[in-house]
Amino acid sequence: MKATEVGAVMTTDVVTVERGTPLKDVARALGEHRVGGLPVTDKEDRVIGVVSTSDLARSRPRAARPDGTPRPWRVRLFSGMPGVSRARTAGDVMTVPAVTVGARAPVTEASWLMTGHGVERLPVVDDEERLVGIVTGGDLLRAVLRTDGDIERAVRRDVLGTTLWLTPRALAVAVEDGVVTLTGRLERRSDVDAAVRAASRIDGVVAVVDQLSHRVDDTIPARSAVEAEETVAGT
């Protein structure tokens, strides 16, 4: 069983710019495609940075209108006013290093990266670090928004069937608001641990409530198990 990979939800039609792309062309691309940032790539399609609207805004001096109030950065970019920053290309203002995610990474990893770095989109790269797509917060949200019924079916199929090799009805599975409750009896303690871990990795699962019991605790050393049996026999 595998969690949904980033490559399965990413957008492959990616607008990019190069290090030498003029800032006016960067601004035009951002506006035309209604995005907040663009990957900056080299000749081999490797991501060397990201340029965003905030990068452009920081690169411009706060030139004033005739009445003394600051001009919007888009106006300043095309105005050719005196005092304009020396930044001229995407390479001058891009953020480096770029935060990227692998196409084979689980969507949860992309979510952690977005949250940790405060970004809404991530360039997706292949095993050779070449750009293959873009993933957004909306893409990730759609990937994990599953109904309780969808989650229950995934648990019965992937946890009971694939992980434990049991029939789909071998355990009681209840799902409410993404919280999975597993109830029943398994042969080994290690099976219980495996079931809980596998259920927690399913997309859309918020938490797993373990109400499972086991017949044999195979997680303790053999000698300790024998001693435990002797202790029980002697009582």
From TrEMBL:
<dbReference type="InterPro" id="IPR000644">
    <property type="entry name" value="CBS_dom"/>
</dbReference>
<feature type="domain" description="CBS">
    <location>
        <begin position="10"/>
        <end position="68"/>
    </location>
</feature>
<protein>
    <submittedName>
        <fullName>CBS domain-containing protein</fullName>
    </submittedName>
</protein>
<dbReference type="InterPro" id="IPR051257">
    <property type="entry name" value="Diverse_CBS-Domain"/>
</dbReference>
<keyword id="KW-0129">CBS domain</keyword>
<feature type="domain" description="CBS">
    <location>
        <begin position="94"/>
        <end position="151"/>
    </location>
</feature>
<dbReference type="InterPro" id="IPR017080">
    <property type="entry name" value="UCP036990_CBS_BON"/>
</dbReference>
<dbReference type="Pfam" id="PF00571">
    <property type="entry name" value="CBS"/>
</dbReference>
<feature type="domain" description="BON">
    <location>
        <begin position="147"/>
        <end position="216"/>
    </location>
</feature>
<dbReference type="Pfam" id="PF04972">
    <property type="entry name" value="BON"/>
</dbReference>
<dbReference type="InterPro" id="IPR046342">
    <property type="entry name" value="CBS_dom_sf"/>
</dbReference>
<dbReference type="InterPro" id="IPR007055">
    <property type="entry name" value="BON_dom"/>
</dbReference>
